[in-house]
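Design job #97: recover the sequence.
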């Protein structure tokens, strides 16, 4: 509408100019007749003459201009009203967003990489004791996080994924430091906004998973260890020995299979509680003898134990086994009953007696059986003659 009015004004203005040019001679005559008048009278005379000739046109143009101004004013009022409503709705949405964010247990953060600004919900300061809201951070925004030194290597992977735009959503488990120096396990989820092939904003969420990780670690610990002796269980022993053999194929290692003698008599005569004490006592004595860092000690099941010991010479192995036999040869008393317990031991070497754990266990078991046959409370090193006999 406004454009149409402008066109009408232009047409009328042209008509007015054209008409004025046609009548310019009459206008000159009027001026000449009024040569004796003062300048002010001449101007008033001119205005009177101009209005008499073009008054109607001027009124029409003035009306049109007024209408256009009213139309523009109406549009301004409507737009101002709409803008006010928009700003009000935007303010309400912002309030709703803040309420939702504050009700979440998770922490929301926003990194503006263009302005180098960082914002986070108040939950961050409540959880960690320090503020992440920074108006101007230096270099990389991840440097503002107090990340555990061992987890900083994950940042390279995060940056690689972000730069390559491989993933729109990136999730990592990291440890963040609290004000008191304690680290919390957190899950960090990152989403980024890119413009023209460049990341301009990173929006993320931090979830406290510390209790979950610790519970999982505890469960994993329980699944790996024998609860009575706190030695590795059979499954873990298999996993660790196989991994060691895989990574140290050229090493010489020793597998020691230990079986208690007369243990059934302990349970039958002294009770199972005493039997448990004998098992724990045996485990401690084995650990005392084989206390090398690389030694893998396991309760294999019941009254059987296994030790996998890398990089020990045969003379040193024999010396340790003799000491172990002496330590395990003990008597236990209860209810005026005395039961003597000892150990029969079989030994096999990797790789000469077997290149797999299963083969080593089989050979050491043959040697252990020989120790039983010879009267118990002794050890036997495997050789092929044992299987022939």
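Job complete. Output follows.
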């Amino acid at each position: 509408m406004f454009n149409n009015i402008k066109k009408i004004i232009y047409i009328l203005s042209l008509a007015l100019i054209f008409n004025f040019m046609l009548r310019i001679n009459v206008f000159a005559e009027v001026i000449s007749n009024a040569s004796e008048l003062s300048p002010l009278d001449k101007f008033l005379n001119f205005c009177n003459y101009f209005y008499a000739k073009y008054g109607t046109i001027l009124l029409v143009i003035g009306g049109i201009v007024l209408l256009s101004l009213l139309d523009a004013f109406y549009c301004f009022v409507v737009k101002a009203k709409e803008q006010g409503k928009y700003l009000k709705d935007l303010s309400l949405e912002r309030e709703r967003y803040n309420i939702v964010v504050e009700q979440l247990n998770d922490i929301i953060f926003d990194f503006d990489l263009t302005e180098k600004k960082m914002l986070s919900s108040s939950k961050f300061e409540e959880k960690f004791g320090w503020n992440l809201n920074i108006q101007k951070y230096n270099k990389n925004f991840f440097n503002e996080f107090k990340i555990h030194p061992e987890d900083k290597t994950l940042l390279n992977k995060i940056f690689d994924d972000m730069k390559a735009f491989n993933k729109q959503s990136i999730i990592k488990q990291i440890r963040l430091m609290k004000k008191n120096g304690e680290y919390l396990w957190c899950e960090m989820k990152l989403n980024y906004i890119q413009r023209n092939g460049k990341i301009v904003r990173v929006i993320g969420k931090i979830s406290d998973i510390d209790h979950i990780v610790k519970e999982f670690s505890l469960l994993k610990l329980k699944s790996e260890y024998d609860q009575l002796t706190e030695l590795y269980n059979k499954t873990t022993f298999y996993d660790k020995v196989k991994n060691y053999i895989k990574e140290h194929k050229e090493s010489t290692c020793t597998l020691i299979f230990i079986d208690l003698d007369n243990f059934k008599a302990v349970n039958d005569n002294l009770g199972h509680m005493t039997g448990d004490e004998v098992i724990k006592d045996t485990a401690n004595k084995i650990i005392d003898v084989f206390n090398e860092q690389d030694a893998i000690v396991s309760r294999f099941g019941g009254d059987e134990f296994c030790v996998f010991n890398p990089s020990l010479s045969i003379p040193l192995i024999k010396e340790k086994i003799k000491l172990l036999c002496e330590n395990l040869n003990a008597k236990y008393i209860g209810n005026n009953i005395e039961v003597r317990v000892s150990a029969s031991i079989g030994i096999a070497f990797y790789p000469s007696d077997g290149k797999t754990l299963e083969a080593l266990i089989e050979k050491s078991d043959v040697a252990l059986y020989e120790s039983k046959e010879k009267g118990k409370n002794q050890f036997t090193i495997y050789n092929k003659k044992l299987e022939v006999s």
